[in-house]
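User: Hi! Is it possible to get a structure for several chains at once, not just one? Here's what I have:
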Amino acid sequence: MKGKPVETTLTPDSVCKPSEDVVSRQIEGELIIVPITSGIGDMEDELYTLNDTGRVIWDRLDGKTPIRDITKALSEEYDAPPGEIGRDVLGIATELVRRRIVVAV
Amino acid sequence: MPAPDGRERGIYTSEVRLELLKAVMEEGKLFRFRAPGFSMYPFIRNNDIVTLAPLADRCPRTGDIVAFIHPGTRKLVVHRIIHPRDTDFIIKGDNADEPDGLIPRENIFGTVIRIERAGRNVAGGLGYWRRVIALLSRYVFLRRIVWMIGLPRRVGGRGLLKAQEFATYRRFARKLRPDMTLCEADEKDMNAFHAQWNSEIQPEPYRHNPEVTNFVAKHGKTIFGFIQLVRHPDSHYPFTGFWLFSLMVRVPYRGMGLGRELSMRVILMAQEEGASELSLLVNEKNQPAIALYRDLQFEPVTIPGLEERLEEEYATTGKRRIAMRREFLKKPKKEIN
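Assistant: Yes, the chains can be modeled jointly so their relative placement is included. Here is the combined structure:
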């Protein structure tokens, strides 16, 4: 996506949601995210895809649920240590915010 | 957990592109993408970038270039409406013989509002002229007119090629040659080369290949000529050793000595790297190139393992290439007493 990366520090209490400047669609098993720059979805710009794990987190970034709760839910669902899951969720959410695909609310 | 992948541009299938287009149009946004193909020539050329605006409730009109799903192939097509009929539309490529058929309104997603070629907007097929173009296209005159418009250029091009065969022309042309630099190509040069010479093919992102050295003849950002020195390892049999590839000079600048100078760059680099021979392939009918290579001490050769391939190529394409090779004399080593 055009523009400088957004430098931000998320915490477990941060709440995030998909940016209004992206359009996403699940196609052939992949979640493809098209950035909208100046009202244009540009195939010549960089598009993004999320793998299964990224998609699970993306689906939960609803603008209401804090990262702490997303971590807890995933930890229970996948029977994995909350510390490890927490780092992963925070890491990918930060990366998504940095790339302007997701915004912190 | 992996970061989101930034996918390289242009590798999506037409089905994926169609789904993304639908997703963006549903949001009421514009959609910009590369349109491959020649069916809208000359108004949209292969790999021009077009921007689509969603139709929303607006009814498309005669002359609009629209994106639609073809009812037969289910593929995304970008062609021009040449005539409305009830609730459907007759749509046709400007360079096509036959219309695509009657296309229902619901198959049409959006209209083309911008066409970009080599970074510039080209508006010839849009605006007020679009109705006239639709009318001409409907009655098949359009292709004839386009052919007539291109005729002087084609005739002029052939005349120039003929003139370049004469030594007198070449003598004058060398004196009139514009200032240009011959050098090893860097990433910027290669990107400029692909944009100017292969604009109809979406270029791969630049990757340095240690087996290949590219040279260009350029002035500013304009590339006039190109050549490659390729070092093939034994595993590339029968293409082993040092090869001169891809000598290209823009037609108006032929006969100015560029081909010779570019070839000399490759010859000198191969010699410096200790090559015992330098090989190349050339079309047997390309007499000016063969004459140049002979002058540079290349001689026709038979390369084991390659002849069969060249025969197969001739059977498939009808074009025969011949191998030529220049051998380098090794400097005798000084004896140390």
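The CA atoms of residues 2 and 37 of chain A lie 7 Å apart. Strands of chain A lie at 16-18, 22-27, 30-37, 40-42, 47-50, 102-104.

User: Great, thank you!
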